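Task 17 of the worksheet. Students: predict the tertiary structure of the chain below and write it out as structure tokens. Keep your answer in the requested format; marks are given for formatting as well as content.
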Amino acid sequence: MIKSKEQERAKKAWELANSVSVGIIDKYSSLAKSAPVMILTNGLGQTLAFFISKSNGKNEYTLLYRHINEWLDDNISWTPNNEIGNDLIEKVINEKSQIYRMVTEETLAFLSWIKRFATALTPDTKEAAE
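Model answer:
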């Protein structure tokens, strides 16, 4: 069965949003809602750097960074460069401007699904629907 890119984004976003523990899903959801505005205002590289600065290894910043990284790793053809590491921020800050714009657009499209599913999975949203 052939799936559209939107279906693939939705499937991965659903899988990743469901993997977030109940204890931080509300913070994750809030961050997922604000992330697109942060990217449009500050740029993808600045936003990812902010996530790294706030990351403690298991909080919402860490998770969202990992989820974006996981999606982009499978869906972006990065310019081969043996001089940079395999981390997302290194790829982003060393990429050509055309690819950088494409990565930004792909990140925003993926975040729209993450935002929707994370919001749907927050306990407050579930209780309001019941």
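Marker's comment: The helical segments are 5-18, 25-42, 44-54, 60-75, 88-94, 97-121, 123-129. The chain is about 75% helix and 0% strand.
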